[in-house]
Specification:
By secondary structure, the chain is α/β, with parallel strands linked by helices. The protein contains 12 helices and 9 strands. It folds into 2 domains: 10-131 and 293-305, Aspartate/ornithine carbamoyltransferase (Rossmann fold, 3-Layer(aba) Sandwich); 134-289, 3-Layer(aba) Sandwich (Rossmann fold), CATH 3.40.50.1370. β1, α2 and β2 (70-74) form a beta-alpha-beta unit. The structure holds phosphoric acid mono(formamide)ester and norvaline.
Length: 306
């Protein structure tokens, strides 16, 4: 049996594959998709969640329904991944029932382990290291607003977290410039910066890391996320002090380019990483981003099972 394709990281896809998925997502969103019409008919997606979710759960589940398939939600307490039984056994059992497995996990090693043993595609629905499904939707949104990805300057003003890592890898692949602006001590993992920088040299993408908000000068896209990610709740209070100057507000918008697009993967903590008024500007595309999760993931599931 041939090995399934997995989507654990933005690095799992080439530039051409990312663009192919985005093109399909665009066609699907515009209602122009007719290849089989119900490409997931008779197919089932298992959705494993170790953490809460609104967008990931609903976009995958609704997406499957729209494509003619079915999704099974497995809550954190349902299977107690790694406690009630091993990741290996879960991957092997689910592979006998379903056609795709999406997992939202704490440690990235869990999605890697699922992919090692599963005989169906594994999709990373967020780990502590990457959130690649989010970046497909973000890229679809940037193309809608700016017409292209290559040469666009995107600044992620927040923490060097899972979203930052996937943005860096994705940007490096497609030739987009990515600057990550964080408080000192919260930069992305060094290996991610190194790897993304090397890939970026080949594609013309400049990857930068800064502790200075002025690095957002001339940004075409500014992007933020919660200061404390899921699993870092006990650091939230400390981070509120450290991150106070790393936010998207009127001052940030003055530094960025005119017509700068505002992104946030949501959920948002208004008054912290973004203020409500900035999130509702005409150039804010945060709800397009949320909608595009479904279109991008529908395209992804068709791509992985074709
Ligand atoms: N952006 C995102 O992944 O949202 P959820 O945590 O609600 O799934
Ligand atoms: N960095 C955030 C993203 C939420 C979609 C987290 O991991 O909680």
């Amino acid at each position: 049996m041939s090995k399934p394709r997995h989507f654990l990281s933005m690095l799992d896809f080439s530039r051409e594959e990312i663009l192919q998925v985005l093109e399909l997502a665009k066609t699907m969103k515009s209602g122009g998709y007719s290849s089989g019409d119900m490409p997931m008919k008779g197919k089932t997606l298992a959705m494993i969640f170790q953490k809460p979710s609104l967008r990931t759960r609903v976009s995958f589940e609704t997406g499957m329904t729209k494509l003619g398939g079915h999704a099974v939600y497995l809550a954190p307490t349902d299977i107690s991944l790694g406690k009630r039984e091993t990741t290996e056994d879960i991957a092997l059992v689910l592979s006998r029932y379903v056609d795709i497995i999406m997992a939202r996990v704490f440690g990235h090693d869990i999605v890697v382990d699922l992919a090692k043993h599963a005989t169906v595609p594994i999709i990373n629905g967020l780990s502590d290291y990457e959130h690649p499904c989010q970046i497909l939707a973000d890229f679809q949104t940037i193309v809608e607003r700016k017409g292209r990805l290559d040469g666009i300057k995107c600044c992620f003003i927040c923490d060097g977290n899972n979203v930052a890592h996937s943005l860096m890898f994705g940007a490096a692949r497609v030739g987009m410039h990515m600057t990550i602006i964080t408080p000192p001590g919260h930069e992305p993992k060094e290996q991610v910066t190194k790897q993304a920088t090397e890939i970026g040299r080949e594609t013309g993408s400049v990857i930068a890391v800064s502790n200075d908000l002025a690095a957002a000068s001339g940004a075409d896209v500014v992007y933020t996320d919660v200061w404390a990610s899921m699993g870092q709740e006990d650091e939230a209070e400390d981070r509120r002090k450290k991150f106070t100057n790393y936010r998207i507000d009127a001052e940030t918008m003055n530094i960025a380019a005119p017509e700068c697009v505002v992104l946030h993967c949501l959920p948002a903590h208004y008054g912290e990483e973004i203020d409500y008024d900035t999130s509702r500007l005409p150039n804010a595309a945060i709800f397009d981003q949320a909608e595009n999760r479904m279109h991008a993931q529908n395209a992804l599931m068709v791509f992985l099972t074709k």
